[in-house]
């Protein structure tokens, strides 16, 4: 799915800003949509609604958004598309009172052609629900409360923020238009080959593909829908030199631009190779989370986070636990960060409380009771397809994460996940590596990640959840586990490790108390020593970049405090530790040679 842009043939307008908002109830009330929004309050878009008005924080069920807007048609024969980048969790959309589309899942875009429905004066209305259950991703549980009110328990450790979280736009294209492009590349000594496959709506003629370098010099052209173009002496995309070529596609009247980084990604033995060299992942598990905006796309915070990561010497991050706004990937492409791109599959647990769902029930997905497994499985497939369709051309995306901490140990896990891994490989033109993010929850020999993942990604909390605060004992257990992974011969990324620390809480450093900044530092120092001893560990992603909001529980002190930065991006002591470590550490390390 192409990112919406403006060009000579395409116009683009935003419907962001202040919308009218009405709080609804458990059941969908279509009368609200049809009638005037009498009790409407203003609500910013994009944002989560939860932290704007106090009574909305724990709201369960439906809410309604409305926006009046004008549209100036410039041409009679153009396609007009309404696009939502992300509405959490599910949405029904009405234009001028007529139902036009609906969408399940809050983290991927959806769009609909409205050419014959749009007028000069329009009313756009959305019914948005935040209900998550056994068949949604992420997974949630509905619990009855006193007063017969239902309540959602997330089966995951982040607040179930809701709303129109990302941009709402209208864009146009000519009738015969560029629908999609898929790009792959091959790298040889002094040249690269870019293979493209263009999808157009209309007859495949009048096609021109032009590739420009950074100096705007034309370096290759093609005029078929599918071809391979040679680039002599290519500039490869890399974290230190995120070189992007500009591609201009012309199809009849339609013009579309995109940037493309030429780079090679490969898993070989126990190494992860970027452009043929063993790469070491330094970075974070993140969240889309900020004060007041909640999970609403926050351009400022997004830029700030990249700046902070760069300063620390980080070179990568994981989009835990859902696909991030596309603008974030575009920045990662531009600034040179490797991204592990994750689906919304968090909370797929059978027998244990992975995903830190301390209060929720076990959700057994692998039995076929009431078709639940099939419903989740089908939705999971849709998410994988949509994610790859959106992100397949970004150089920064180097691996797909199929799920975070699912029950990958139980019987049935292999049969559930194998087709999903196969699907990702089939859908991705670049055939990137795939993984699932695995939690310590049983005999690691039973974990299906062994067979399925190209890179073993481990979320491990030795010294916190496991044996905390006794770091000697914990590190012995960590070593023992890594010894057990050695024989598999695959690379490992420690995709999460961390300890909560309350900003400003200090202690003496000989045996600091848990939750102090000093303990967090000691925890990382000891874990990093172990990580450094194992050549097969090719990356470290402390959990989390910043503190973030969660559901309330006795294990959470106003949210999860494992951030290296506070929620408002103030540094904790551990920032210094990682800055010192990462700025000295190369992006490419052959640990086998140490
Ligand atoms: C995990 C989860 C993450 C939690 C984290 C924690 O394993 O993947 O969502 O936030 O642990 O802090 O407990």
Automatic annotation (TrEMBL):
InterPro entries: Beta-gal/glucu_dom_sf, Galactose-bd-like_sf, GH, Glyco_hydro_2, Glyco_hydro_2_AS, Glyco_hydro_2_cat, Glyco_hydro_2_N, Ig-like_fold. Keywords: Glycosidase, Hydrolase. The keyword Kinase does not apply. GO terms for molecular function: beta-glucuronidase activity. Residues 177-262 form the Glycoside hydrolase family 2 immunoglobulin-like beta-sandwich domain. Its EC number is 3.2.1.31. Pfam families: Glyco_hydro_2, Glyco_hydro_2_C, Glyco_hydro_2_N. Residues 265-585 form the Glycoside hydrolase family 2 catalytic domain. It comes from the Bacteria. PROSITE patterns: GLYCOSYL_HYDROL_F2_2 (PS00608). Residues 15-174 form the Glycosyl hydrolases family 2 sugar binding domain. Belongs to the glycosyl hydrolase 2 family. This is Beta-glucuronidase. It comes from Anaerococcus murdochii. The lineage of its organism: Bacteria, Bacillati, Bacillota, Tissierellia, Tissierellales. The gene is uidA.
